[in-house]
Amino acid sequence: MKRFRLPLPLLVLLLSCPLLLPAQARYANPVLHADYSDPDVCRVGEDYYMTASSFNCFPGLPILHSRDLVHWELAGAALSDYPGPDWYGPDADFHGRVQHGNGVWAPAIRYHDGWFYIFCGDPDRGIFMVRTQDPRGRWEDPVWVVKAKGFIDPCPLWDEDGRAWLSHAAAGSRAGLKSVVFVAPMSPDGTRLLGPSRIVYDGHKTQPTIEGTKFYKRDGRYYIFAPAGGVKTGWQTVLRAESPYGPYEERIVMASAEGTINGPHQGGWVETAQGEHWFLHFQDKGAYGRIVHLQPMTWRSDGWPLIGEDPDGDGIGQPVASYRMPGVAMAAGSFDAERPRWRRKGSAARRNQDASTATGPYGLPLEWQFPAVPSPYWHHLLPDGTIRLYSVEQPYGTDWRQMPNLLLRKFPAENFTVVARLQFHPHPAMQETAGFLVTGDDLAGYQLVAEADGVRLGHFTSRPVGKSADGGPVIEEEIDENVAFFPYDSSREVSLWVKLEVRAKPTGTPVPEAICRFGYSTDGRTFTRPAFDFKACPEQWIGAKFGFFCNRPVRKNDGGWLDVSELRIQ
After folding, report:
1. CATH 2.40.10.170 correct for 26-324
2. What is the pTM of this model?
3. Ranges of each domain in the chain
4. Does residue 38 have an active-site annotation?
5. How far apart are CA 152 and CA 7, in angstroms?
6. Is it the case that residue 309 has pLDDT exceeding 80?
7. Which of 68, 73, 153, 211 is flagged as catalytic?
């Protein structure tokens, strides 16, 4: 029997990236071992486009492309500077405000009448829409479809009669109500609601915490796909009705079973040009984030879908660890958007295979994100591919969680190694710092502190241990400031290499621990590492990341910088 509420041990190996076995033409889950929460997908011809939640990180709303649903290319981003300062008045400034867990929640992507649309919820502001005719290019500025605190997880549906509808859920933390599903009439251009949202389904008794709505129509019936039961221990539910307003029947169509993943949580259905049906969804994997799985889907003779496989014949599917490849054309050069690859000085930007998608809206490779809306003063991509980070004034001391200028990347696999060459050129009078770190609720890394005749290397860990009287976090830090000392060269620069090894440690559950080991080197070959390991952890709704920073404690006319001039990921 399937179990719906408690996670069970993982008895099958989930590989860090898609595995193709030519003889059987099979793939292995997950198809993306990287943090793409709440994925949704649409098809246009033979092309598939996926987006995902980006929360407080920018660029936001990543755009991924595939020709086979297994290999994905990170092709663009739909949001660069949301929320716009004009929504809060001409003097508002969002550069420098990190709002963990807020921002862009649970998008839906659709293609309609020549346009790609993405609808997403901001739990504090309402529902927004962006659109474009070129998903790899510039998306139009967001339209505020409805202002409402607590509206989340929207999905549009354009009916055959020309009418449009919008489904969504409610965030209990903001609305004071959850476990319900809404439908509202919407203008055909997707810019506004034509009437109030109406609760069409209550899941409190049988489908608690139902959310993540995806709205479809098939054979004259309306279907809302929605996960329930919670992110780590829940299942997939489908609602069905003859009218957008219901009444809706319910059915559980996929759940965890012994030997399968925990969850499985929110995702989207897509039909191939050949008439096959597939479902992409995420699994919460702790520090590794919310990774993406692909499940086969079939429509039963009674008009209900079944996701995954059903070995016991009870009509409720369970996730597959491996399955035959979808019967779609595989584009030459398709690849996993987060598969570890090499980048060396001179490679321009560790480019995707299509040079037109090499950089995002901030002029940096698309894999990089900031934890807040970035300033153009923070960074520059040099012609040889070096990333230069300029020192940024920080009022936060050593509370890295509040620093908006961290340049970060998602964990790309269960086991991986990062080696980076850092060249620190501090201003002689600014007490600047720079470094390399792993983020999450707990953080750790190396910090370079500029001194008169050189740079002192220290190793730090930082974790929240409570809240102060004003509600702010109480931070506990451990800093070894005397790991090493490096004198300046003739140009007042210090060069060294840093290394991060991440290894998965089994826990007896579907979610292993991510154990991090740091090291430093003067030649890039022989590394010395700290005498302890660090266990990475997620932050609110987001997996752990690694990256770089460059800061100063005072405001001056100009400052120094940190060059990341070589980066190897394997």
Report:
1. no
2. 0.90
3. 26-324, 342-569
4. yes
5. 26
6. yes
7. 211
